[in-house]
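Subject: Protein record for review, amino acid sequence with backbone structure tokens
Category: Structural biology, sequence-to-fold work with a learned token vocabulary.
Format: Residues in single-letter code; tokens as whole numbers, each standing for a residue.
Body of memo: The sequence and its backbone structure tokens, given next.
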Amino acid sequence: MKPTHLLYLHGFRSSPKSFKAQRLHAWLQQYRPDVCWWCPQLPPSPAAALALLREGIAGWPTQSSAVLGSSLGGFYATVIAEATGWPAVVINPAIDPARDLAAYVGELTAFHTPEEHFFFRSEYVDELRAMTPGPIVRPERYFAIIAKGDELLDWREMSARYAGTNMRLLEGSDHALSDFDEHLPPLLRFLKLQP
């Protein structure tokens, strides 16, 4: 079924101003204004982020909703997809954020608004560990876009985690997926948003 509701989850230190979120939202506004779009600013606490998401999607239709996420947002998208059964698009998804983000405990700045500071606390690492989903139950519901050129995450780890999914393994690119426009058409086809 074609999605009527789309949830987009940004990465660590990112925001709804992410160029991928902005680009996808602009496409929807132009071609599919009927689709309900939600890209919330996620709080630093993973438990608080998950609570916000669960509350926000509580009334969404099970059969026509989908979730997308990039980096840490890809991890959250997997948590949501495994809990709801929704189709999911993950872009350079974080596989073990509890391990990777332990080094970032302390005061940080936001990428798109560097004047904004926030604290990433040690208990947030425990929250990530506690919500880590098990093996992917239905890999056919996933579309994974993974760049071998990702400078932050290991593409081998990502592709192993999402083995059996609809996967687009890129020879180059980068963590931010700067060439996102090239990958928008297959992403839209997977979500049945365009022919």
User: Anything to note?
Assistant: The chain has one domain: 5-190. The chain has a mean pLDDT of 92. The chain has seven helices and eight strands. Strands lie at 5-9, 36-38, 65-70, 88-91, 106-109, 117-120, 142-147, 166-170.
